[in-house]
TrEMBL record:
It comes from Peribacillus huizhouensis. Keywords: FAD, Flavoprotein, Oxidoreductase. This is Gluconate 2-dehydrogenase alpha chain. Pfam families: GMC_oxred_C (PF05199), GMC_oxred_N (PF00732). It is an enzyme of class 1 (oxidoreductase). InterPro entries: FAD/NAD-bd_sf, GMC_OxRdtase_N, GMC_OxRtase_C. Belongs to the GMC oxidoreductase family.
Length: 570
């Protein structure tokens, strides 16, 4: 028998970036907030002497335990999905801070085009440019409407950067200057300018200088140690929820953090949620936590899973095209090229997660698609995040993948290679979606989430185009040998690609084709807000965190209004 606890004003399911922002903003406005996190607590002191590539980068010490909670996967509807037994294609975070602990720190804004992608594409190219089996839709909010929330998130994080010359208008500059340039990033910047492109410094949550944010939280300057992605920051220099919004929430006295609390169901009746049921994973006890407002702030997969398990919202059916929960799951493309340099050596073992240069000339609709058989594009980045010796063994084409020659070439080219990689947009297809697996369950008897996903014709054509652009710039950089990533084949869940999963609980202005409005409030239950990248109707050519953060600040504003106006969001 589950024990029922006293009701609270606001409850968050997950305490990462989204949950931390909601907690901080609601608590600052006098609301009592409880944050339920299924993992344990952790802070900067837990990451002291964390430079252990085997433990963290290879064995994923900070990530989700897939022996207890995983997903099942298939490429097509007529295949049987099987559980993901080890982390690979994407890395699911765990514990307080979530993926905001082990991220690299790239903090982009989506383009104005992204938020009105369907309207703008049709206006410029006509309806025939969008194929019938692609579920492209506007977001129900414009860039200009979201811009103030981007600004707030960047100031909370202290983002170091310079304006994107091809991006949307900004209300203010980044709060801290760009990170240092290196021989590698300068080489890319110079080559890009020769090709009449528009390079700019990668917007970085690895701070270029010490900074105190508007909430009074102090962040330190990056040491360029090269242990960012898959690692926590021992210096408190890579912005995370753990050193910003969570401490801010705690200081109010209005926020209670409960760890090892795995939510298994949203309880609801009459079109409203009354609370959630969760399991104390240490003791095995069940609790019911009532709340006036329930906010799902966990990772993309779990937001969709909880709604499906709780039978809240209409599940998407790819055969009929009806329903919204699980719809528009989108991923990303990673075309690119590696350049091998015979006469130059670089300090590739040094760097930071978001130290780099970017060009946006091939992203969104920044280039003419009239004679191309795809839409959108991607960002091209040359970053110096730091090669680590276990995972980084670059060798030229034709080199054996084991033995004496492999070892000799690995040592030679460890400091003689540069990667130019794209993040390509992912557009929603009617056959790519999330639902509940009919066979497999997690450690608590709850059905696993099933992912049905494969790359599409749009993806393959975009991938081919972007690969050619990466080769051009690598040759301009002076590489003696250029090796590209090859053609795009069927999606495979094993090799790492990107942790930029989006969709499943998408936003819009029409309840028939979206799950939440532009405050992240559910159409089917007005006291349930679903916050995170699960709200993205498609994926752009950027990292999602900046847009996730902006949407979280807007959602927090909506929750405060809803709570203080007697259940009305006006």
């Amino acid at each position: 028998m589950a024990k029922t606890l006293p009701k609270v004003d606001v409850l968050t399911v997950g305490v990462g970036w989204a949950g931390g922002i909601i907690a901080a903003e609601c608590a600052k406005n006098g609301l009592n907030v409880v944050g339920l996190e299924r993992g344990g607590n952790r802070n900067t002191e837990d990451f002291s002497m964390i430079h252990d590539e085997l433990r963290y980068a290879i064995r994923y010490d900070l990530m989700q335990d897939v022996s207890k909670e995983t997903i099942t996967f298939r490429n097509k509807l007529d295949q049987r999905a099987l559980p993901m037994r080890q982390l690979g294609s994407f890395l699911l975070g765990s514990s307080v801070g979530g993926s905001g602990v082990h991220w690299n720190g790239h903090t982009f804004r989506f383009l104005p085009y992204d938020f009105e992608i369907k309207t703008k594409t049709i206006e410029k190219y006509g309806k025939s440019k969008i194929k019938d089996d692609y579920l492209l839709q506007d977001w129900g909010i414009t860039y200009d409407e979201l811009e103030p929330y981007y600004d707030t998130f960047e100031k909370t994080c202290g983002i170091s950067g310079e304006p994107n010359p091809l991006g949307g208008k900004r209300s203010s500059d980044y709060p801290t200057p760009p990170m240092k340039n290196t021989v590698i990033t300068n080489k890319f910047r110079d080559a890009a300018k020769k090709l009449n492109l528009h390079p700019f410094s990668l917007p970085s949550a690895n701070l270029s200088e010490a900074y105190t944010n508007p909430d009074g939280e102090k962040l330190n300057a990056c040491q360029y140690c090269a242990f960012c992605e898959r690692f926590g920051c021992e210096y408190g220099a890579k912005t995370s929820p753990n050193i910003t919004v969570i401490p801010t929430a705690m200081k109010t006295g209005k926020f209670e953090l409960r760890t090892h609390a795995n939510v298994i169901e949203i309880i609801h009746e009459g079109g409203k949620a009354t609370g959630v049921k969760y399991i104390d994973t240490l003791q095995g006890e069940e609790f019911i936590q009532p709340a006036d407002v329930v906010v799902l702030t966990s990772y993309v997969m779990n937001n969709a899973k909880l709604l499906l398990v709780s039978k809240l919202g209409n599940p998407y059916d790819p055969k009929t095209g009806k329903g919204v929960i699980g719809k528009n799951y989108s991923y990303q493309l990673t075309p690119g090229s590696t350049g091998f340099f015979e006469k130059e050596r670089f300090n590739t073992y040094m760097g930071a997660g978001a130290l780099g240069q970017v060009v946006d000339d091939f992203n969104g609709d920044n280039f003419d698609h009239s004679n191309l058989d795809f839409i959108h594009g991607g960002t091209l980045v040359v970053s110096q995040s730091g090669y680590r010796p276990i995972a980084s063994n670059p060798v030229p084409p034709g080199t054996p993948l084991w033995g004496k020659e492999f070892k000799e070439q690995s040592i030679k080219y460890y400091t003689r290679t540069i990667n130019a990689g794209f993040q390509g947009a992912s557009l929603p297809h009617r056959d790519n979606y999330l639902d509940l697996d009919p066979t497999f369950k997690d450690a608590y008897g709850v059905p696993l989430l099933r992912m049905t996903y494969n790359f599409t014709d749009q993806d393959r054509k975009l991938h081919e185009y972007l690969t050619k652009q990466s080769e051009k710039i690598m040759k301009e950089m002076g590489a003696d040998t250029v090796m590209n990533i090859g053609k795009l084949v069927d999606y495979n869940i094993v090799p790492y690609q990107t942790t930029h999963n989006v969709g499943g609980v998408i936003m819009g202005d029409d309840p028939n084709i979206s799950a939440v409005n532009n405050y992240s409030q559910m159409w089917d239950a007005d006291n349930v807000f679903v916050v995170g990248a699960s709200a993205f109707p498609h994926n752009s050519g950027y990292n999602p965190t900046g847009t996730l953060g902006a949407l979280a600040y807007r959602a927090a504003e909506g929750i405060v209004k809803y709570s203080k106006n007697g259940g009305q969001l006006v």
